[in-house]
Amino acid sequence: MKATEYFDSGFNCTQSVLLVLSESAGKTCSCIPAIGEGFGSGMKMGSVCGAVTGALMGIGVVYGRKTPEDIPSKTHVETLVKEFLNEFTKVHGTIVCCELLGEDVTTEQGKQHYREKTMHETCKSFIATATQIAQTLLSPE
Asked: Would you list the domain boundaries of the chain?
């Protein structure tokens, strides 16, 4: 899966998912990886999983409104976001980074455990799930 390859190459979880979704939609831009920089590791706070954030950003890139008056696009994105969050939670039980990893990655000890326990590999499963769910939701019907 290309998202996990991006992750292995050094992009964070958010960037990895967002890159794949934007590329799949033909909406590439040098700003795409840059915009996801601060969202990995649960927004650097162990909060919402970066892969989840990348997927939600990807949904916005594809279907988000371009003007404030475009309420149908806003409503469509809200529906897709709810579906995505429900599906991800069904698979993994939560969308919170620290809960998914069972580790507080904001502490020095947590960062050390992340490296020692090869949690990078664990994160790849969240990246894969987020990408698959989002691609399914973004596929033409």
From this structure: 2-138
